[in-house]
Amino acid sequence: MADQQAVLEVKNLKKYFPVKEGILKRTKNHVKAVNDISFEVQEQETFALVGESGCGKSTTGRSILRIIEPSEGEVFFKGVNLLDYSKREFRKMRKDLQLIFQDPYSSLNPRMTVKKLLLEPLLTHGTTNKKEAEQKVVEIAERVGLSKEQINRHPHEFSGGQRQRISIARALILNPQLVILDEAVSALDVSIQAQILNLLIELQKDLKLTYIFISHDLNVVKHISDRVGVMYLGQMMELSNTEDLYSNPLHPYTQSLLSAIPSHDPSVKKERIILKGDVPDPANPPSGCPFHLRCPKAYEKCAMEKPAFIEKEQNHWVACHLYE
Amino acid sequence: MSPLLEIKDLSIDLYADSEKFNVINNINLTIEKKQKYGIVGESGSGKSLTSLSIMNLLPDALAISGGEILFNGDTDLTNLSKKEFLKIRGNEISMIFQEPMTALDPLYPIEHQIMEVLKFHGSYSKKQMRQLAVEMLEKVGIPRPQQLIKEYPHQLSGGMRQRIMIAIALICNPRLLIADEPTTALDVTIQAQILDLMNELTDNYDTSILMITHDLGVIAETCERVAVMYSGEVVEEAAVTTLFKNPTHPYTVGLLESVKSLGDKSNKLYSIPGNVPTPKQLTGGCRFASRCPHAMEICRSQAPPLFSIDADHKSKCWLYGEEEVVNG
To answer: B5-92+172-327 architecture in CATH?
Structure first.
């Protein structure tokens, strides 16, 4: 992976959650939620992490921001390792790194007005000039499509789409450089989702933002991202730029994911790869390749040996024995 | 031959703050035998309320204020007593819901929950019931049904639970299966499995499906006919292939456009401006007028009737005012 202008560099990130049993709460086992993930995010690009529920994509996002402390690994943000800081020192860094959540109903305090919600991050990060802060609130609210009058209302007076606009404003008011969007449009209706996606793309251009876009929706990811990493059971299965991944998916898992998207043309019947079974229990992952139990192309080697993550084509990485 | 289910001029009102708000306005739907029928709409469009009204499961604050729901040509479901309805619900009409975790009882093993339906609607011995339950689980693709039937819901994954729900819904061989967002809570690969299963089962079972979803892709994959709902009204109704090829109502056009332009990075994503009006905000005119790019004078003052575009394609929009009116 070239490292010309990587804003964020994640190296061998691991997050193991202990499974405790018995009266003495001894650690019996670990859930390997994120198991040795590495990737880079370039300046002003949108890097997407996709996968099914339980694949570790959200844990990865949260580990980068240390909302969940990672077990091992390094996260370089503009050359410095975020994990080297003490918690208190890291808090200052959080200004540049923001997170937007899926559910705009539970992520906004219902007792605060929009104005208070937007002022809070400014005050936390040491703004003392109240007039200036209020001016900033009005500016950012207008930027995301909320009117001056609306900022005195409470979150329950807004629809889901407008609430997500408030969350976006709240994340952007500190001029961050990197924004992690964790299923940020998944809870919204199609017509509203389109409005918010347009807003995000516009804001990225104007404010020179870098996005990590975490989503299970492959159609949305195709639209918004420049590069995509596909995760399965805590591991990266394939990583490539968006165009290559959608036109030429290498990993059998990516192929079946893409074929499972319902088509929007009833006259075209797609050739579907229907996977057998469910995602295995991450506390008890299969040996070898994590996908081999469901893989239509699996052979003996897959159960024995974990495939290496190799650069099969230029900038197109894959972890599969078929390509070794 | 009469259709399996006929909803005629159904209206539902919401009673809140000693005021009355209309949430479902005069909808008409006809589901034929063995048909797969879809209702698509965004949150708040009234698609779930329509299905709950068929099952006589409307919450207390809501009441049917007009119209009838004819089942099998002669039974008006809105007129049945609670006791009479018990014979129909789960037996002739059954329903599966979005969230398979909350729909199953966490305190009882799977076995108990499947056999409960048989106990209620049939007269079998315990042995027969267990036999039927195991067979049904096999049909919905559950591995090791003999052992699994003894397990509890929390021991199963989301996809498995939804399969159990389908098994419970189909075990009495219903005439109509209502599926309210059956795959929304599931991952894409599991969604593909479940949709496949539903298609396969209804082909073998003589069951009609009413599929309720917000996902046009799910409609395209499974249904034959579709009704598009917006703000408590059916705004367009057609065969699925017709609707996708030749959408007429500006709302349907907008919805399809915003889905289809996804992935095309060179252009801005098409979006319908504004938000769905709340019941309090409704005026006399067309309910979509405030967001419609083609809104005219008449749209704001007068609600359009359902116009017939051709034999089986209807659209509730003044743009088609020259066409023949189907019903008021």
So the answer is: 3-Layer(aba) Sandwich (3.40)
